[in-house]
Amino acid sequence: MIEQWFPNGWSHYLLGGVLIGSGVGVAFLVAGLITGMSTVFSSTWSWASRLPLFQEDRMRASRAWRVALALGLVLGGALYTVTVGGGALGTTAIPWWQLALGGVIGGFGARLAEGCTSGHGICGLASLQLPSLLAVLTFLTTAMVTAHLVRSMGGA
Amino acid sequence: MEARKLGVALVTGILFGFGLAISTMVRPEVVLGFLRWDDFGLLLVLGGAAGVTALVYQLAPRLLHRPILGDTFGQHPSALNRQTIGGAAIFGVGWGLCGVCPGPAIAGLGTGNGALLVAVAGLFAGAYLQGWMASRRT
Question: What is the domain partition of chain B in residue ranges?
Answer without folding.
Answer: 2-137
